[in-house]
Each structure stands twice: as C-alpha cells, then as structure tokens.
Design goal:
Blueprint: E1 6-8, H1 15-31, H2 36-51, E2 57-63, E3 66-75, E4 80-88, H3 97-111, E5 116-122, H4 126-134, E6 138-147, E7 150-160
Parallel strand pairs: 4-5
Antiparallel strand pairs: 1-2, 2-3, 3-4, 5-7, 6-7
Length: about 160
C-alpha cells in the first residue's frame, strides 16, 4: 500500500460497526479470541460515541475509503487518559501508521491537560509493546488469565505526561 493514509476524527455512519468488526475478525484470526471480545470492544465504544466529551477523541485511519486503523483517548479520571481501540489492519502495517496514531493520541492527551496515559493490552501484541516503549510507556503490571476464549497475559502500561 504505497499511498497516503488519511486520519480523521469525525464519526460517520458505519464507523463504530467497522471498528468492532475489525477488532473481532483480526483478534480471532491472530490470537484466537472468541466473539466475546467484540462485546468487550463494542460496549465502551458505544458509550464513547454517545458521551461527547471534548477531552476524548477517536482517530480513524483511512485508505481509499476503507478503515485501516484506529486509536482513541478516553478519560479514565480527570487527570488520567486511557488509550483504547488501537488497531492497524495487516494491509497497512509496516508504514509507520501505528506510530503516527500513537503520536496523535499522546499529543492530544497532553494538550487536554491529562497528567498521564494508561492502557491495557496483551503480551502477544509484541509490535505494539515496542511502539509503547519507544514512546515512553512503561509496563507496570502483568496479569495472566483466560479472556475471550484464549489464554492471555494482560499488561498495563503507563506514561507520564508531565
């Protein structure tokens, strides 16, 4: 895909469903997650879409009218932002899109006055962990368990914005 990937922040009809679908299909294929993972993504995403806080934002990456990635910042508390729904479609990987999305999210959180950013991920997402570390996130917790029909190790990362 040697073309320009654009980012937008306004939601359009179908975006939420596509983001949930992408998460469900991709995580099932790459990590064996079951359909409960889609519900895990859909429920807070629906709350985000109906919440309308100016301190929260979702970025959607598009290529030729197709969503190929996303990331969001939501409020975990007045001082702490949470990174959510970070995903890059396999067709768009290897072009710096993940880093670009992450940089947008961190800059936005800082601009909104959050003191730190937290995120939860799973240890199998090695490329994402490299991006987090390269941008100053530190792993603060590891929690093995079984979620979404798969054995996982949940990981919490934090980044100070001060």
């Amino acid at each position: 895909m040697a073309t320009v990937i654009t980012l937008r922040t306004e939601l359009r009809p179908g975006d939420l469903g596509e983001i949930v679908r992408m998460h469900g299909v991709l995580y099932a294929r790459e990590h064996g997650f079951d359909p409960a993972f889609e519900a895990y993504v859909a429920e807070p995403l629906a709350r985000f879409a109906t919440g309308g806080s100016p301190r929260e934002r979702l970025w959607i990456a598009e290529w030729q009218g197709r969503i190929v990635g996303c990331i969001a910042i939501v409020a975990a508390s007045p001082d702490v932002a949470q990174l959510r729904w970070f995903l890059v479609d396999p067709s768009a990987r290897g072009q710096g899109l993940g880093g670009r999305l992450l940089d947008e999210a961190v800059a936005f959180a800082r601009g909104q006055g959050y003191r730190s950013i937290v995120l939860w991920t799973v240890s199998a997402l090695v490329a994402a962990a490299r991006l987090y570390a390269a941008r100053g996130f530190v792993r603060t917790e590891r929690k093995p368990g079984r979620l979404w029909g798969a054995d996982v190790v949940e990981e919490r990362y934090e980044r100070d914005l001060g």
